[in-house]
Design goal:
The chain has 13 helices and six strands. It is α+β, with helices and mostly antiparallel strands.
């Protein structure tokens, strides 16, 4: 007996050629005729991601929230606690819910993105109003230049991240909602001239430092931290991929390759086996090689 899963408002489930159910969110025809330009959106085949565990969450909930906001603002109603449609706050919210953000921004770096967005949104002008409450069209190339010079003064790297993030967010949301942007200059952050600064050279850790840390971690009862450091150094793995489980204990000298370690390159979806043997020249001194965790 097949259990019928509950569907949120404005969501259809369609049987695909593969046999899976594809979920789609749509704007009702009545409201489309009234001028609602929120695009219909495919939600994928994963029910939990599309609709939440009980049909009251997932991406559908975000779409319905945006739709409800459009209906209220269209009637002139102010919605407390929700970014007003077409404002900078709303733009950042749309960017964070976009496929571009969900697929391209790792969970490790999202908190930094959030801080950078708030840096702009919470910035107050001389008149005392927040930038986040301003309409998207109010951010012109001239005001973008001024904001760049005023925000995060003394922190050049932070300002550079702000420009790059805003340029990307404006571009992504403009593609989805072009009518909310200035037709002549849709992205005011393009072309902002960055101030010159001297880049400091960051020294990479060497093998001796990595294994000194690894052995100290093992002695203090943290073998996982030791393994993560060695894997990141020796096999060029990103820390977030190690923490996300793209490499596991049974990948080390597994049954399929007892003298190798299986590595998955997450961004390229490629897997390879790396032999666990090194020449004396490649591994450094004898003392370093003997201290290597097995």
């Amino acid at each position: 007996m097949t259990v019928q899963l509950p569907l949120p408002r404005n969501v259809q489930g369609i049987r695909l050629a593969s046999g899976e159910i594809g979920y789609y969110w749509y704007v009702p025809t009545k409201f489309r005729k009234q001028g609602c330009k929120i695009p219909n959106e495919p939600l994928g085949t994963n029910y939990v991601v599309a609709c939440g565990e009980d049909g009251k969450g997932g991406r559908a909930a975000a779409c319905n929230s945006l739709f409800d906001e459009w209906r209220r603002t269209r009637g002139g109603e102010s919605i407390e606690g929700i970014a007003k449609h077409g404002t900078v706050d709303w733009l950042f919210r749309e960017y964070k819910s976009s496929v571009a953000y969900q697929e391209r921004v790792s969970k490790r770096t999202r908190p930094d993105y959030e801080r950078t967005m708030l840096l702009l949104a919470d910035f107050k002008t001389k008149r005392g109003d927040r930038i986040g409450n301003r309409k998207i069209r109010a951010i012109t190339p001239v005001s973008a230049d001024k904001l760049y010079s005023l925000i995060a003064d003394g922190r050049p790297r932070q300002r550079e991240k702000l420009i790059a993030l805003c340029r990307r967010a404006w571009s992504v949301v403009h593609r989805l909602h072009p009518d909310l942007f200035d037709r002549d200059v849709p992205n005011p952050w393009t072309g902002v001239t960055k101030k010159r600064r001297t880049m400091k050279t960051k020294l990479a850790a060497n093998r001796e430092q990595v294994y000194t840390f690894a052995w100290a971690a093992i002695e203090r009862g943290y073998p996982e931290a030791a393994a993560a450091a060695v894997i990141a150094f020796e096999f060029l793995q990103r820390p977030e991929n190690i923490l996300a489980g793209f490499i596991r204990w049974n990948d080390f000298r597994g049954a399929a390759a007892p003298n190798a370690i299986k590595i998955e390159h997450h961004r390229r979806a490629a897997r390879c086996y790396i032999p666990l043997r090194r020449s004396l020249t490649a591994s450094g001194s004898n003392s370093t090689r003997k201290r290597r965790p097995s």
